[in-house]
Amino acid sequence: MQRMGDLVLTFPLLAWLRAEHPRRPLWVVGEEKFFKGLMPIGPEAVFFPYDAANRLRQNRYHQVINLSHRPEAAALAGQLHADAHFGPRLADVGTGKDAGRTTYVHGRWQLYRTSLVHNNRHNLFHWADLNALDCVPARRIRGTDWPAPQHHGRDPQRVGLFLGASEPEKRPSAPFWAALARDLLRRGLKPVLLGGPAEAALGADVARRANTPALNLCGRFTLPELVAFTRSLRLLVTPDTGPMHVAAWTQTPTLNLSMGPVNARETAPFPPGHHVLRATISCVGCWRCTQPSVLCRDRFDPARVSSLVQALLREQDAVPAQSANGTNGAIAASRVARLRLPGLELLRTGRDTLGLFDLVPVGDNGNGQQAMPRRLFGQFWKAFWAWRLGLHGEAAARRAWADLATASPRLAEALRRALSGLGRDLAQALRGLGTGQATLPSDFWHRHPPMLRPLTGYLHMSVQNADATPAAWAEALTMVEAPATLTT
Length: 488
Fold this sequence. Notes:
Strand order of the largest sheet: 7-6-8-9-10-11-12
Radius of gyration: 24 Å
Oligomer: single chain
CATH architecture of the largest domain: 3-Layer(aba) Sandwich
Structural class: alpha/beta
Protein name: Glycosyltransferase family 9 protein
InterPro entries: Glyco_trans_9, LPS_LOS_Heptosyltrfase
Shape: globular
CATH topology of the largest domain: Rossmann fold
CATH superfamily of the largest domain: Glycogen Phosphorylase B
Largest sheet: 7 strands, mixed
Helix content: 40-55%
Strand content: 5-15%
Keywords: Glycosyltransferase, Transferase
Pfam families: Glyco_transf_9
């Protein structure tokens, strides 16, 4: 019950559930305007619009998984009987005059995901993985081989430019798109302007500026027709948007221009082998932009993106030769890695040792080790949560801490001090536990420095979600002590 991209990012979960429970029917409640066009490309499932909820309430389920933040989704989840629930669920609480309803989040990974709202700076887990980690065995995720992008049989010169995004800050401007289209034409390529009805005016503006009206196909396709057309593209250049996920899922190579209030670690193309280009400034990946202008978007230059597009296409051309002798493909890949992109970094989608989504830097693009401390910091928190929430043992978390401490001793020492302060703050909140008055202040999660917020955000949510019971406080104390054991 979200946007198109959110629906496509449930497809990995649906595929894993289908593999884990081949004899169980799989039902999905979603937005009909999206799922009708996407059913032919998604895993086998039965889709229902929300107005079919009365029919759904008549059954009992093995699992109910709510991936929506909408209140009516939580209400529906609360009305369905199941052996297990995951995600937000509206429940009755209290009796008599104290009776009421409140929303609880079921599943520790779903709780972690909820704690990322306005608090995702150091998160390295992709939404598609977070959808599944509570209810799909780790062995299933680790053992999945996702199809790689395919360029064979496509128009060798056709490059799609998807112009729109859910918010203007998440996409390039009309002058940028026009300049990029002209430069691609100059290189002998065939850029095509794509978009839905909402991008019709933008497409006309870009076509006028680029003097290429014949290449504007914005608003021309239904969703199934757009899906079919993207299969003819050698590459789709796109901001973070639903059609980007559709293209990647159907093995169309994509270059994601990641800008504005998006975190590519969470919402980049999920299958391996696609590319992400983003700025290297410290605020990149924010939940909501607070700058006077969208600084990360200003780093993108049409000429450099055009050079990158051409380099990626040459890399594609070398793949058959690479499979034969391993030489030409390696040369093409090294050209992409050596391409200088000042103020930007190029990454390739891949998988880590757990089979979870990863973004792998492609060369240094002229930026050296600029982003290394933050990357190592994110990897530490990723390893910490994978340890605490059961994906691997403590040893991997210790290695991540050692990597961080070696690369940046000053940052490691700052984290030690911050953890000590968090312990004192939590101890103060616990003073009223014996009298039932133990509470966390409303600003608890963000009163601590950003380096601690992956932990404080989760602590705040988990204590509230468990109604501040003694067991919830005990888990909070354990969570605070855990990183301290790694950093000593």
